[in-house]
Design the sequence.
C-alpha cells in the first residue's frame, strides 16, 4: 500500500511527493523502495502495488531504479485501507486463493531485515492455515504515536496469540499501562490468504468488497498501470481495515516481533531510527551545528546553521523551512492543515513538479515573466500544446531536444536556443540517450500553469 | 562612519552588504539611511560619509533614495575608527575649524528621535567650547554587549560630566555593579570641534593624524567619491578612537542620555528594539509561528514555519539559514568566522551581488551551465568584456537593452533574446528610463565569475 500522504514530515513530504517516495533512508532509498526490495526475494511472487493515481509515475520510476517488477494498481481516489486490502485480495485470489498474502505499508522502516524475514515466514504459515495475522511490535517505549493491540489468551504459536482488542493511540500514562500489560504496537502489516480475507470482507464489510470487485472487474490497463474503475471504487465506504475487519473477525492473530520497526510518522520518530553523532545530532546536507544536541537538521540546498539549541528539528527545502522542537514535531500535521486552509501551495506541492516525462522546477518569477529548469528523460515527450498568454525561450544546457513548432520539427543541442511565439502549437521531445535539460524563460501577461491547451498527450493526460 | 561589517547579524548582514545598509528598520530604511536622515535638518551642514571602498555604490544609491546629498569619502582599507575620525576632522576643518562636528556610527538605532535632537544640541554647544563629548546611554539592563563609561566627579552641565574611565564589555556580574555605580553605555557617538580633535590627535596619536593628513591631501575625486590616498592611509596605525584619544584626553566629557539607543549588534538586540506581538514574537516576511514565544523570525523568501519553540532566532535567506537560541545569538560571530575559515562563500557574500550598474543574482547552476537574473539601472553600463569559456544567452524580460556584440550595436526589447558566442567582445547598457531585467543563461566548460576580460569600464574597475 503506497497511497498515503504523510504531512507530519512536511516540508519534505507533501501531497505531490509523499514520504514513502522520498529518499529518507541512509542508503539513499525511499521507504517504498526499501519495502519492495524486502519482498523481492525468491520466496515472493510478483508484488502488487496499490497506490494513488497521482503517484503512478513516481512509483514506476522508483521501481525501475531498483529493478523491481510489480503490478501497479491505481486508486482513482482515496478510500482508506479496507478498499485497498479488498482490491489486493481480489487480485491475489486470481493467482492463488489459498496462498499467503503479505500486506505491507510502504512507509515503514525496518532495522533488522533478518528478523523481519523470520517473522514473515511465521505469519505466512499461519495465514495459509486460515488466520488473518497482524505483526505486533514489542514496544521499547510508551509511544503515543501508535495504536496498540492487546494479545488474547490463546497461544497460536511461539510468540503468536489471538487478539483481545485493538486500541487507538493512547496518552502517555495509558501507554505506560499498556506496556506493563504486554500490549503490542499495531504495525498495520498483515498476512492472510486471499480467500480468508475475501470471506471476512464478505461477512463484515460487504459493501467494500462489492465496490472493490466491480472496480477490479471493470479496471482498464493504461500504459503499464491497472486503473481501477472510478465510479465503482468511489462507491466504497471510506473505512480502515482495522475497523472493517480486524476488530470483528474471529480469525485474527498477532505475532509479537522485534525488528526495529518505525512508521517514521514524524520528524522525531525519523530522528530516533537514524544514526546520530556523539552529540545526538543527525545532520543531513549542507549543515553546520554549534553547541547543539539531540537535534535533526536537514538541508536540501541552503547552507543551514544551528547555534545553541537542544532537541530541535530544522528542515530546509527550496521553498519552505520548518523549525520545530523535537517534542512538538507531530504538530506539524496541524501546521500543514492550517497552511492548506490558507491556500498555500507549499503545503501540498513541491517546487519540483514530477511528470511522466521528467520534471520541472521554477527558478525565478517576476512581473510578466517566469523561469523554469526543465528536465526531460530519454524518450520523454511533453504534450503537444499551446499557450494563450506567454511566449517561451528554450535554451538547451544539456542533451538534445527535438522541438516541434507548428509544422516544423528541429533539433537543438547544447547552447542552442529555440523561440516559441505566443499561440504557436509546440512539443518538446528528448530523442537522446541522456537527460535533456533546458532553461525556459516565459514572457507574457500571464504565466500560470493553467494557461495550457493540450492538443495531444502520449501519457493520456489530455 | 559607515565602514563596518557586522557578522553577528549573519546571514542577512555579510561583508558584501553589511548590516548598516540592510533595510532592517520598521520603516523600510537601513540604519545608514536613518542615521543620515537624522542629520539632514537645517541645523546640519552637508554630511561627510566615511565608508569602505567596497560599499561606495551602495552608500551612494541609498543616499539617492532618501534624497540626501553627502560627501562620500572612501577608505581604501580598514584602519579602525581613529583614522576615520582623523580624516573626518581634517575635512571638517577645511569648512570650519571651530564649528561643532557630530561623529555618528551608521549602524545604530534610535527610538526617541526628539530626545536624540535635544542631546545633540547639548553636546554641540559643549563641543564648540572645546570639549570632546561622548553620548553615554543610561543603561536599562546590565548588558554584556557594550563597553561602559564611568562619569567623573566634575559636572560640566546638566547631565554631562567629565570622564573617569572607559571600560571594556564586562561579564554579567560586573555589568550589574556598573549599573549600580552609575556607569553609562559607551555609544561610540561623539561631538567635538575639528580643531580640538585635530589637536588631541596631534598630542596622542600623531602617526594616525599624519597618515590621515597625507591621505586627504593626496585624495582624488573619482566619479562622485573622494578616494583617499591608498599608501598614505595604509600607513596609519589600526586603533580605535577610544584607545587613541578618548582614554587619554583631558578634554573628554560624557552626556547621560536616554533616547532608546541600540547598536543592533546581534539578533537578540535587534529583537529587543523591534515591535513584538502578544507572544513576544517578531515575525518578518513569509512566516508562520505556532506555540512559539519571544522569538525573532525573518524570511527573505521561503515560507518559514516555527513550531513549539521559545526564545529562538530563525533567519532564512536565499542561500543560508540561521537557527539559534536568542541567548546564543552573539555567538553567530564565531559561526561566521568558522565558515570563513572553511572558505564558504555564504560567510561573506550575498547571492545578490551589487554593482555600480545594478545587480545580478544566480538563480540556477549545474554542470556546464549557470543562470543569472541581471538588473541594470537606467543608464547603467556593464564593462566591455569577453569570456574565454562560456557563451551567453540573454532574454530581456523587462525594459530595453542596448547590446554591443563585437562591432554591432542592437536594441533588444521585452521577449527578445540575444546570443553572445564564446570569445565575442560584448557590452550591456540600459538606455531606457526603467530597470532593464534579463535572464542570462551561460553555457560552457567554466562559468566562474573570474572568466572575464574587462576591456573598458565606465566605473573605473578595469
Sequence:
Amino acid at each position: 500500500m503506497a497511497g498515503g500522504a504523510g504531512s507530519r514530515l512536511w516540508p519534505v513530504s507533501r501531497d505531490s511527493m509523499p514520504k514513502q517516495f522520498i529518499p529518507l533512508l541512509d542508503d539513499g532509498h525511499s521507504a517504498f523502495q526499501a519495502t519492495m526490495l524486502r519482498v523481492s526475494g525468491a520466496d515472493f511472487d510478483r508484488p502488487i502495488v496499490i497506490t494513488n493515481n497521482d503517484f503512478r509515475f513516481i512509483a514506476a520510476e522508483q521501481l525501475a531504479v531498483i529493478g523491481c517488477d510489480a503490478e501497479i494498481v491505481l486508486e482513482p481516489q482515496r478510500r482508506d485501507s479496507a478498499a485497498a486490502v479488498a482490491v489486493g485480495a481480489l487480485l491475489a485470489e486470481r493467482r492463488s486463493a489459498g496462498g499467503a498474502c503479505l500486506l505491507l505499508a510502504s512507509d515503514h522502516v525496518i532495522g533488522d531485515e533478518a528478523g523481519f524475514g523470520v517473522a514473515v515466514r511465521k505469519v505466512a504459515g499461519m495465514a495459509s492455515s486460515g488466520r488473518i495475522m497482524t505483526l505486533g511490535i514489542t514496544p521499547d517505549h510508551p509511544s503515543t504515536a501508535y495504536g496498540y493491540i492487546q494479545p488474547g489468551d490463546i497461544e497460536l504459536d511461539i510468540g503468536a496469540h489471538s487478539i483481545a482488542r485493538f486500541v487507538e493511540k493512547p496518552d502517555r500514562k495509558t501507554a505506560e499501562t499498556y506496556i506493563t500489560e504486554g500490549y503490542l504496537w499495531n504495525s498495520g502489516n498483515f498476512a492472510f490468504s486471499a480467500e480468508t480475507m475475501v470471506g471476512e470482507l464478505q461477512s463484515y464489510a460487504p459493501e467494500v468488497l462489492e465496490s472493490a470487485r466491480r472496480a477490479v472487474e471493470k479496471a482498464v490497463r493504461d500504459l503499464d498501470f491497472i486503473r481501477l474503475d472510478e465510479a465503482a471504487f468511489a462507491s466504497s465506504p471510506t473505512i480502515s481495515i482495522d475497523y472493517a475487519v480486524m476488530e470483528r473477525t474471529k480469525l485474527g492473530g498477532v505475532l509479537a516481533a522485534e525488528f526495529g520497526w518505525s512508521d517514521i510518522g514524524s520528524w522525531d520518530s525519523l530522528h530516533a531510527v537514524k544514526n546520530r553523532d556523539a552529540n545526538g545530532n543527525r545532520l543531513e546536507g549542507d549543515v553546520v551545528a554549534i553547541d547543539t544536541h539531540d537535534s535533526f537538521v536537514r538541508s536540501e540546498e541552503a547552507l543551514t546553521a544551528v547555534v545553541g539549541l537542544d532537541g530541535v528539528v530544522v528542515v530546509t527545502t527550496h521553498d519552505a523551512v520548518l523549525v520545530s522542537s523535537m517534542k512538538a514535531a507531530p504538530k506539524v500535521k496541524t501546521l500543514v492543515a492550517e497552511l492548506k486552509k490558507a491556500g498555500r501551495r507549499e503545503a501540498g506541492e513541491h517546487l519540483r513538479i514530477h511528470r511522466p516525462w521528467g520534471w520541472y522546477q521554477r527558478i525565478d518569477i517576476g512581473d510578466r515573466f517566469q523561469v523554469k529548469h526543465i528536465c526531460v528523460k530519454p524518450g520523454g515527450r511533453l504534450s503537444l500544446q499551446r499557450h494563450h498568454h506567454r511566449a517561451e525561450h528554450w535554451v538547451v544546457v544539456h542533451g538534445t531536444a527535438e522541438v516541434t513548432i507548428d509544422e516544423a520539427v528541429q533539433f537543438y543541442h547544447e547552447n542552442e536556443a529555440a523561440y516559441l511565439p505566443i499561440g504557436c502549437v509546440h512539443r518538446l521531445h528528448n530523442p537522446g540517450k541522456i537527460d535533456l535539460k533546458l532553461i525556459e524563460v516565459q514572457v507574457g501577461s500571464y504565466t500560470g500553469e493553467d494557461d495550457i491547451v493540450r492538443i495531444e498527450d502520449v501519457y493520456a493526460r489530455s
In short: The first helix of chain A runs from residue 31 to 38.
